[in-house]
């Protein structure tokens, strides 16, 4: 047990300051690229379609609640998100943000379709408990001015919480792989990836990026190789959780995997990319001078600008929550800009373009630093 604890849990140790930096990056990513989901398009007008899964909070209800309930849920979700960004009652804001998303998404899934973006929204629950609001937050300023006691997680509890999040990521891939194996992906005469490509291409008209290129490939060995690689990767993901270094390489492979899914099936991976970022070696990066050696004047200006921009977006999203009831999300800054310019939203394309060089940079730095430490 002691060996397992040393090998598994301690390898996921991340300093509280790095968790705080990650909190800022996480929130900026949502603000700039993805936006937040909206639930206020739901109402009891859709009761005819109400068919929640058996293992669902929505199954406790006989029908959809009225629209006021979902508007209230959306507003609370939005406010709790910005409280996370600003670091106001961060632990409780993180819990509320995740819980409101889970409750709202349970009703969204009551139509029978389930998406896979939950990792993005359950991450605050774990990291809120791990203490990602300790630094760069109003909570920290309040503790300094009032000299109150710190409410931070111990190192053991913090590393345990992060390792459980890693376990959930590994388990989500593992279950996806097991379902594929049970569905016959391992059979030599089955071309499962090719079947799904045809389904997305012709049924859902997902024909962008490299879909046209892959649809023309008629080589059984190529398609079976993709089937077996997918099975091995997804099922093996759970085993990689035993140590952070192994897990990181599987996460790197996951970024490449998601890029291929985007290019082939036109399914975005944005929700997962920012979650994977948590597990890089934060100690091996050099941070801007305003983080390592903060200049009071520069720091103050950055905080004011970030606060004003995020406050403007908060008002924009709450306005939409209260007045617009036919939208499934609250747009990111890029989405709003593209809408004002009457251009298509390019968030997904930008994420894809940024993911490859970022992945290569992280792996290169990791390799170089590992070589140096062994010499």
Key descriptive features of the protein:
single chain, 375 residues, mainly alpha, disordered C terminus
Q: What features would you describe in this structure?
A:
Strands 1-2 form a two-stranded antiparallel ribbon. It has 375 residues and is mainly α. Helix content is 66%, strand content 1%. The protein is globular, with a radius of gyration of 22 Å. Helix 2 (16-34) packs across helix 3 (67-86), helix 3 (67-86) packs antiparallel against helix 14 (296-323) and helix 7 runs antiparallel to helix 10. Residues 367-375 have low confidence and may be disordered. The protein has one domain (2-374). It has helices at 2-9, 16-34, 67-86, 90-108, 118-130, 138-146, 155-182, 192-203, 211-215, 220-236, 244-265, 270-276, 289-292, 296-323, 333-340, 347-374, and strands at 36-37, 329-330. One of its GO terms (cellular component) is endomembrane system. This is HTTM-like domain-containing protein. It is found in: Endomembrane system.
